[in-house]
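ok so dumb question maybe but i'm new to this and my supervisor (M.) told me to 'just get the structure for Phosphoserine phosphatase' and walked off. so i did the thing. is this what she meant?? sequence i used:
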Amino acid sequence: MLIVRLIADPATLETRVEEMRDTLEVAGMPLAHAGMLDFCGEVLQMEFAGDDVPLLRRVLSSAFDPADCIIARDAFRVPDLFVSDMDSTMIGQECIDELADFAGLKEKISGITERAMQGELDFESALRERVSLLEGLPEDAITRCLEERITPTEGARTLVETLKSRGCRTVLVTGGFHHFADVVADRIGFDRVVGNRLEVSAGKLNGHLAGAITDSATKRRVLEEERASLGGGAVTMAAGDGANDIPMLQAADYGIAFRAKPKAREAANGWVDRGNLTAILKMLEIREDTWFAG
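this is what came out, is it supposed to look like this??
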């Protein structure tokens, strides 16, 4: 049995559900139940016989676009652990691209970033190349960039603080940099930060990174280590948008692709394409009058 929670255009919802039901029935996955969640008139819950998640994902994506959706095998629970990417997920920007603008290199560096997030380039090589191009940039450009360019994604703090109020541990894990991530995590409310470190010499970036690289393997390892520390039966959720988030999304019970690149979206069992990050709270059946509102 597969359970789906979905937020889509209410004007076409009934028709789309009927079309999807017919398609899946022919494929041997009949719709066993469908109904709106009582707490919220936006979220449709459907239950399907069968276990073919890739098929169900394809049909849902075809029938409802844009939509917010999570597919699960077991009854939904508020996660015990939430691990999220930062750039273009918890914030609306790619920090290295915005920082590059201060060096007059945004167009060149953003092109490399886009290809890396699409999975077309090796992440570590692409990261080191971009960092090398920033050599000589004053460190105080990071402070200016944070103040002038970096903004949380709509619903980010509400999502994180509401999950924390339910006992969920929250971790920001990023292929970006602690110079940015530590500030962002403090603003949004994360319990822990994992990221890369820019080397600074005489008040300027020297074009190198300090320590090990935080890459896709690191993101998955952080999720698995944090889950293990919580003990057996811990439910995990991850959110991200790029190719380097895929292992983390696949390892989580709920892997949410947030306005994601195609490869990341295809790998996830949940996605948010229509609403903001609070759509996740709705799909977890957390009442809006209990959300963090600060």
